[in-house]
């Protein structure tokens, strides 16, 4: 896929951060329709107005709490009725809660919310649009934003890591299902970045050869690889190295290495978006 021009694109978590940047790419490539989902109504309206002012694409925005399966189904039906079948789906919405050890979890609802938004929502949202992608025979794409936290274990983010391990396992398995069933016109891409300067991980620290990533270059890379249909994109190269090491080294050696280079202390001063 060279461009999304003329396509119908849906982005979750589209009001700000990565999601807004993905939507901007779609508008600049003259997608026919760009659909924005977010739970933050005020920011969503501002982003929708900003994108509409650029021209070239029809902009649709829906206030959706993706932790709510019924809300996803309702919004999915509205999109199919008002916009039509989606060609490009970007499952970008995500949250991170807490900054302590697991047993210090003060609000158990944070566990449910994290798993609902990061793990279950991409599944339910994709089910709203993937059947039509498969049946329609059109060149289609699904980009799932997971995390390098889905590749290696990390203290002080156990629930977040669990949610991203689930997202990665699900996304790559569906990719294989599409290939196995001969539906290669639909391609899944799973993106696994380290910390990005969107505000979501304020206070988190970079580690050995791994600074906090800049948002726009990351979006450029993921957008380009999504169009190519690249199965897995891991940024930066140190995350690919850490993933390989985790699979090859004995556990104690792996832990020593990741602790020494700073991975295991990258969340020590995490505060998150205020």
From TrEMBL:
Keyword Oxidoreductase: yes
UniProt superkingdom: Bacteria
Family stated for the protein in its record: Belongs to the short-chain dehydrogenases/reductases (SDR) family.
A Pfam family per the record: adh_short
Protein's organism: Nocardia acididurans
Keywords, in A-Z order: Oxidoreductase
Protein name per Swiss-Prot or TrEMBL: SDR family NAD(P)-dependent oxidoreductase
UniProt cross-references to InterPro entries, sorted A to Z: NAD(P)-bd_dom_sf, Sc_DH/Rdtase_CS, SDR_fam
Record-linked PANTHER family: PKSB (PTHR24322), RETINOL DEHYDROGENASE 10 (PTHR24322:SF736)
Species classification: Bacteria, Bacillati, Actinomycetota, Actinomycetes, Mycobacteriales
Keyword Oxidoreductase included in the entry's annotation: yes
């Amino acid at each position: 896929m060279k461009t999304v021009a003329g396509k119908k694109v849906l982005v979750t978590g589209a009001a700000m951060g990565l999601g807004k940047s993905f939507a901007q790419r779609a508008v600049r490539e003259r997608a026919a329709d760009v659909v924005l989902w977010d739970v933050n109504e005020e920011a969503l309206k501002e982003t929708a107005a900003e994108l509409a002012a650029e021209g070239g694409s029809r902009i649709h925005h829906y206030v959706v709490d993706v932790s709510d399966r019924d809300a996803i189904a309702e919004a999915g039906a509205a999109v199919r009725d008002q916009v039509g079948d989606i060609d490009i789906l970007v499952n970008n919405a995500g949250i991170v809660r807490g900054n302590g050890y697991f047993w210090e979890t003060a609000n158990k609802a944070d566990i449910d919310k994290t798993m609902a938004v990061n793990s279950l929502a991409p599944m339910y949202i994709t089910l709203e649009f993937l059947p039509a992608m498969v049946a329609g025979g059109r060149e289609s794409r699904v980009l799932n934003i997971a995390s390098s936290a889905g590749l290696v274990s990390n203290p002080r983010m156990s629930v977040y890591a669990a949610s991203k391990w689930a997202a990665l396992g699900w996304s790559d398995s569906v990719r294989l299902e599409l290939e196995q069933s001969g539906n290669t016109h639909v391609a899944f891409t799973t993106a696994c970045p380290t910390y990005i300067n969107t505000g979501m991980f304020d206070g988190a620290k970079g580690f050995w050869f791994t600074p906090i990533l800049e948002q726009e270059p990351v979006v450029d890379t993921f957008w380009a690889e999504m169009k190519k249909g690249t199965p897995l994109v891991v940024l930066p190269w140190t995350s690919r190295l850490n993933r390989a090491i985790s699979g090859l080294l004995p556990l104690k050696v792996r832990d020593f290495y990741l602790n020494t280079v700073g991975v295991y202390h990258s969340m020590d001063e995490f505060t998150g978006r205020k």
